[in-house]
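Lecture 7 notes: from sequence to structure.

We start with a single chain of 136 residues. Read the sequence below before looking at the structure.
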Amino acid sequence: MRLSIVLAIVALATIWAGCAVEREKITAETVAARVHDNMRAGDFAVVYKESAPRIKTVATESEFVDFFRQVQQNFGLLKRANEVAYEAKYDSRIGRMHVLVFDLEYERGRVHETMTLVRSDSGKMQLWKLGIGSDD
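Now the structure, written as tokens:
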């Protein structure tokens, strides 16, 4: 009897944890979609301002905006962002990290993008790292 209760508790905890990760994945994908919508609109400064503080240690707002304007100038407007992979990781300093990989289709080419999102201390999901590379 006791063993079946323990097994039931373990099973419920596993299901609950799996549901929590799935909810976190959906939240991360929602934030990623908003980032892509802002990129389509050319609102690169909004992406920067809504990002986690780590982004601001890597580049100034003008450097960030200039980089993405250059990407837009080279490739044209972003047409599609197709998610090709997702991974949840845990870092003892940062917490749960959501890594999404996209195939970005622009008017004049394709690139792959790796987007890492984390929750801020206040609980808001934010862009923590963004990497873009050519598929050439």
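The CA atoms of residues 76 and 107 lie 5 Å apart. Keep this in mind for problem set 3.
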